[in-house]
Amino acid sequence: MSTGSATRGRPPSRRDARRRAVELLYEARQRDIDAVTLLSDRVGSTYVDPIADYTIALVEGVTAHQAHIDELLAEHAQGWTVDRMPPVDAAVLRVGVYELLWAADVPDPVAIDEAVGIAKELSTDDSPRFVNGVLGRLGSIADRLRAVL
């Protein structure tokens, strides 16, 4: 899943950073370890490509707010618990929700569009529609949610 070779020689784009954050969150869930611990192990490693600052911010932000993010996902994923979601979809949605609610420099439509795009790249054919539906529901109430955070 690594995107390192695609970004060699140029700084990673925000899309690359998001994709890498999804990959790290996915790996942490699969290995049943803390994502920030996994991230810190990778940041100092000479065996992997450098990790972009935005990737670090996303992984740390998702981890810090994961309980709240997962509550929101369970409430708005109509018929799905986070544990039942495909792990890649859960990681994509967690990054998307984090950007919707806590990344002030990312417009809501961009957060949703980027998450859908990453779901197209990394998950099943049904995932982009699922991700769009969940984030669309949250995006429609994002201002109210941000007001109580």
Automatic annotation (TrEMBL):
Entry keyword annotation includes Transit peptide: no
Matches recorded under InterPro entries: NusB-like_sf (IPR035926), NusB_fam (IPR011605), NusB_RsmB_TIM44 (IPR006027)
Domain NusB/RsmB/TIM44 span(s) in chain numbering: 16-138
Keywords: RNA-binding, Transcription, Transcription antitermination, Transcription regulation
CDD domains: Terminator_NusB
Gene3D superfamilies named among the record's database cross-references: NusB-like (1.10.940.10)
Function: Involved in transcription antitermination. Required for transcription of ribosomal RNA (rRNA) genes. Binds specifically to the boxA antiterminator sequence of the ribosomal RNA (rrn) operons.
Protein family according to the UniProt entry: Belongs to the NusB family.
Name listed for the protein in its UniProt record: Transcription antitermination protein NusB
Protein encoded by which gene: nusB
